Amino acid sequence: MPNLETKYMGLTLKNPIIVASSGLTNSIEKIKDLEKAGAGAVVLKSIFEEQINNEVNHLINRDPQNQYPEAEDYIWNYTRNNSITHHLNLLSEAKKETEIPIIASINCMSASEWTVFAKDFENAGADALELNLFFVPTDRKKTAEEIEQLYLKVVSEVKKSVTIPVSVKIGFYYTNLVAMADRLVANGANALVLFNRFYEPDINIEKMELVASEVFSSPSDIRRSLRWIGLISSQLLQVEIAAATGIHDGEAVIKQLLAGAQVTQVCSSVYINGSQVIAGMVADLQAFMKKWNFKKIEDFRGRLSYKNIPDPMLYERAQFMKYFSGK
What we know:
The protein has helices at 28-37, 49-62, 69-97, 111-124, 144-161, 177-186, 222-235, 250-259, 268-273, 276-291, 313-316, 321-325; strands spanning 6-8, 11-13, 17-19, 41-43, 47-48, 102-107, 128-132, 166-170, 191-194, 201-204, 209-212, 240-244, 263-266. It is of the alpha/beta class.
């Protein structure tokens, strides 16, 4: 039987399939079910500072009697503490009742809260942290360098405040993604999660209103991360990569490992098909390894990365020159 065990940020996983931060990981019952289904680890549902702020503003604006500094301070502290206590209790319970690694996820707006939340999760027993790092740039006067420096500062400050490993979940909106990945690693990131799946707006023309677009990823979404995992894993040998978005079956898991990923994160496929889809992914991975006589994942990880294929230009090519020229 092939050995599916892998290492991620110093953690030992029974297989490279992690359930991503989402509503799938917001209760102990769900986490235990995911472990039973075969997940190698889980990332807890993110704690969002923005959501806490919205809850506070809603409570304050709902009651005119709350228009006093003392009342606002009380509501802010109560709501914040209640929210983070819920997350910390879930983490502690998951650590007690499961055997798989539990990774905490944080998304903040203010610089100070990143380190506070990070330390709280470390103290509660998190095996690692995942920083859900992205701000929508709306200020036309703010340069790309200023925004990137903010990201780097967050990573650096969090790393100073905790001793557990830290991964950074990012999007692909960078002029030079490889360079940004290099800078994140230089500022302390132990791993990169490629890529974050963001909320995207859509327009309902029948109701003339803004709505949310499709929430779930599609299998074709794997193509974007596949390129960059192949490139980054070949140039930044000291960083581990978690592939995310578009991983709907075992074949997608195998592709990302061949490109150089350390682990894969799944979400939409579990929502759509149920937790049993994880067992199918594990079975597909085992069958692939048996077919090629691979004893362990390291036997084939990165075999088709940028540095290990005869024609690396296949990763660099961006235009459909040949394909469409004869159409």
